[in-house]
Amino acid sequence: MSIENNKKIEIKDKLKTPNRILAMTLMILIAVLVSLGPLLLRSMEDADVWQILFYRSVSWIAALCMILLFKYRFNLLKNIHAIGKWGVIAGLLLAFAQITYIQALNNITVANTTFVLSAIPFLTALVAFIFLREKIKLITLLMMVVAGSGIYIMVSGGIRGGNAYGNFMALLTLAGFASFPVILRKNRHIDMLPTMLVPALIIGLVGLCVKGNDLNISNNDLILSFIWGGVINGFAHTLFIAVSRKLLAAEITLFMLLEFILSPLWVWGLIGEVPAKDTLTGGIFVIFAIIMIAAIELFNFNKKQQSDISEKTVNDRRILSNEEIKVAVKNINENNKPSNEFILTKNEIERLIRKDMKSWIENYMSKTFKKSLEEYFSQTNKR
Question: Alpha-carbon distance 262 to 94, whole Å?
Fold first, then answer.
């Protein structure tokens, strides 16, 4: 089976209504859960970044082990080994991005961080173009410029406000998260779910090395760190990987956008962290670009689907027999609506009319002509 046919089958599976409804419902739940991460960080009492990262990794590893053991059972070690060097590289990128993400949140507002990260789809497209030679559409390039303008407004405003370090960490996070899916695309034939163990282990080890014996934190911070690592990083992110296979890329982008919008709203409404004017202005640019590109992609996809359905309907049609055409016409006359079994084309209607005219000529005209001849000869004989 060709790659093109495999893609068609994959898209058909994604378009099944029950799958899509469940997948969209789960994706909304995932977006809400993941968006709570910054709120958990702001709710910590006195734990520092590396303490949070360490305890978050402990619960992250525990959750991943349960998930992976449930999925692979006795083949767990085999599947972990199968990720190869690219799985390790992807895990290193994710670990780097997770560390810089916490550093960014700890130094700038949640809105500033998440609005910068909302440009992930555009940077992913650029990285894929550079390393995988994937084509970039003109509209994507235009929206990249719009999103880039928004990021420039946010970062430049942050630098003027004395938050250069936090904005730099946000940009590094953007680069790490955008590069991760490119490696997954390059290795689609490999099950990369065990890759999630790599960043969890690395972050935990680095946190342990940095803090050493200084790992005492309050019960509040410990519980929040466990929730962030186990529920959000462990279960929610793993579920995201599974559910994303049932949705289109544009739909996933919109659900990711929901996460980036909700995060600053939680801390704004519950904690009172008000975003700066430059952050809101730049964020509007980025969000507009994301919505536009996702809307255009969905429109083009739906248009193509309608075109494919119409083409398939025409190609799958068979030539109807005259009897079948009569049944269809009779059904239209009796019910005043098209037949469920047959849909007449213009050619078939013309063929029916031609046949009826021929029949009428052969029967009615011939009888009339014969009768006229008989009357003529009868009158002639009388004379």
Answer: 22
